[in-house]
Amino acid sequence: MSNMSMVQAINSAMDVMLNRDPDVLVFGEDVGYFGGVFRCTAGLQAKHGLTRVFDAPIAEGGIVAAAVGMGAYGLRPVVEIQFADYILPAFDQLVSEASRLRYRSGGEFWSPITVRSPCGGGIHGGQTHSQSPEAIFTHISGLKTVMPSNPYDAKGLLIAAIEDNDPVIFLEPKRLYNGPFDGHHDKPLVPWASHPAGEVPDGYYRIDLGKAAIARPGKDVTVLTYGTMVHVCLAAAAESGVDAEIIDLRTLFPIDIETIAASVQKTGRCVIAHEASRTSGFGAELGQLVQEHCFYFLEAPIRRVTGWDTPYPHSLEWSYFPGPHRVAHALKLVMED
Amino acid sequence: MNRPGPVAAPHSNLELYIPEPKARPGDTPDFSDLHIPPAGAVARPDTSARESALRELPYQLIRVLDDSGTATGEWNPRLPAEVLRQGLRTMLLTRVFDDRMMRLQRQGKTSFYIKCTGEEAIAVAQAFALDPKDMLFPSYRQQGLLIARGCPLVEMMCQVFNNSRDRLKGRQLPIMYSVKELGFFSISGNLGTQFPQAVGWAMASAYKKDTRIAASWVGDGTTAEGDFHYALTFAAVYHAPVILNVVNNQWAISSFQGFAGGDEATFASRALGYGLPGLRVDGNDFLAVYAATQWAAERARKNLGATLIEFYTYRAAPHSTSDDPSKYRPESEASAWPLGDPIERLSQHMIKLGEWSLEQHQALTAELEEEVRAALKEAESYGTLQNSEMDVQSMFEDVFEKMPTHLQNQLDELRSIGA
Questions:
Q1: What are phi and psi of B130, to 5 degrees?
Q2: Same domain, yes or no: B382 and B404
Q3: Does B222 touch chain A (CB under 8 A)?
Q4: Do B346 and B399 fall within a single domain?
Q5: Whole-angstrom Cα distance, residue B403 to residue B405?
């Protein structure tokens, strides 16, 4: 076991897989010699060689296309899209190619590729370095979408994603890279070293995709959330005094409906929290699933706490970000309903 | 404030330019602008030549067969007569197959078909010039690759019919084949996506120190897509062992090649800015297509990277069964095409060599028509699109490696309310 930040845990997952499987390759913009703008691939090229960890042209569509071709050959590429905001040039290759190759070829070819990308705000990134595009991927048949909230999960989930024979979108909340940010942006950074989930095994382990975790057990209300918002919701529960059961979805798709339904059926109340904007966000899907599975158990309308339906602003970042105050407000309202 | 600044000069008004083809329906076909150099005029550089020594090639036109059917010049691949006979047979089989399948679509036995009439030399000669294990990332008009690699016609027909023997389980539009064991990648239907994928495959082959190379095809219209440029960038940067082919058949549905920028510069010349060799080849000349492909393949196998090849040809067929070219181009344009027909030209060459005769050609045509008819009888016995009996379960399979719970639930839901 070692103390690892989320950056180090993600790096360790790729290191472990590069060691275990000669067919694993890592590439993307600035990931080679330099080690990535967030340092997630630092040292990997020096350790594993130029042909296994390398830089790519600034062409996200080309990066994913090359990965699809490598996957068809039999390799298991892991590519980095430098910011999730930049993934859209690769959208066609993900939606029309990687996700459908197995289906359209009758199972002859498939895309065992992992697309890592930092997402979310809270770093003063403005509208092109802060977005959370998970819902545009959960909508696509044939893709799996993952968003971890801590170093331990990040490593185990990334190893599972790399080993998966289907394409996986692996979104990394960049505000969590160096500490469990709870939304109190005016307080000093808390490093992962002081957090239990910063204790990470050095070797191989996996966390199966499609399994949620209960970040905080509680009896009053179920909070469905993921990524940075897990820590924001934990702070909100502590500060509001509401005994919330906080579910960290970890994998958005395939969704762990059993864990969600069991919790909501127990608490009878549900708040959904995500950083992405509201309309047609993943929260809409979650709300409908809760309605389908738990309607007769609900004692109050389901509430959503999300980013607003605006681009992610620069100067008003903290008015956009659904911080602990907004989550606590929703927790109180749902208890009064 | 009296700072000196830019001074407005008198300008004439700007005009927006929209390219137009030389001839429309009712006009006489006009290919007077085409510069067709004589066969044999282009020198064949060594396959190890530096790219800087190859920069004239994208503006030349590699031709081997002259108008009289004589093979001439340094690019003549000097193929044995048996290879010529096989090439001719495969091109003719492709044409007979296409004509029959087109008629079946008209009879309502399938929804859609795409012919490659006039372009048979490209896929067939390239398949002959490549190693059978090389990986092909085709577009939708390279059925000749599959036929050349010996794919059973029944197999292809079953896909077109989406019947019980369709290996793609009725999921793909007709002709969007996938035949892994023949090194034929799944055709997407989205244009150009396969081009950078082929580069990725070639990079993987090089990474694994394999000996196989990749080849991919797009049309003239698709060179405008970003994927085309991703492919050239990645191929150049990583010296990928891949042959990137542009089939310039002059028409992208109703848009002439000028809308992809073909009037401004040749498609082969796109290679220049990437530092890749670019060849421009008479696409209706079986020998020139073979020779150019062999040159690019040899170069790739020497670890010297990718080549872009433009095949200059004409789409004699409609874009697809959903298209009516008489609405946008002269009906006689195909017959006026100055580079002729690939089957007639190879046949003429073989007759001139004394290796072929009109009687043999007629006999072969009849034999291939019978081969297609027999295959069709078998394929139809497995069903056609009209009477396809797919189990609805197959709709939910292969979305993922293992069927997730939500898809199982949706299948149950469909069954419970009656499929």
A1: -85, 165
A2: no
A3: no
A4: no
A5: 7
By Cβ distance, the residue of B176, B186, B405 closest to A101 is: B186
User: What value does the mean pLDDT of chain B take?
Assistant: 96
What CATH number labels A2-200? Answer: 3.40.50.970
Confidence of residue A25 (pLDDT cuts 50, 70, 90): very high
Number of residues written out for chain A: 337
Domain count, chain B: 2
Is A185 a catalytic site residue?
A: no
Q: Which one is the CATH code of A213-336: 3.30.2010.10, 3.40.50.2020, 3.40.50.920, 3.30.1310.10?
A: 3.40.50.920
Contact predicate A30/A63, CB 8 Å: no
Domain assignment present for B46: no
Q: Tell me the shortest Cα–Cα distance from B202 to chain A, in angstroms.
A: 8
Q: Which of A78, A76, A9, A1 is nearest to A39 (CA)?
A: A9
Among candidates B168, B205, B397 on the partner chain, residue whose Cβ is nearest the Cβ of A104? B168
Taking alpha carbons only, the member of A254, A238, A153 closest to residue A246 is A238
Residue B404 at interface with chain A, using a CB cutoff of 8 Å = yes
ipTM comes to 0.97
Minimum distance, in Å, between the CA of residue B208 and any CA atom of chain A:
9
Q: Is the pTM of this model over 0.90?
A: yes
The predicted-structure confidence for A165-218, as pLDDT tens digits, reads as follows 999 999 999 999 999 999 999 999 999 999 999 999 999 999 999 999 999 999
Cα gap A13→A48, rounded to integer Å: 14
Residue B400 has its nearest CB partner, among A25, A166, A257, at: A166
CB < 8 Å to A106, chain B: 166-169, 171, 178, 398
Instruction: Sort out which chain B residues have CB atoms less than 8 A from A51's CB and list them.
Output: 207
Q: Does B248 lie at the interface with A, CB-CB under 8 angstroms? A: no
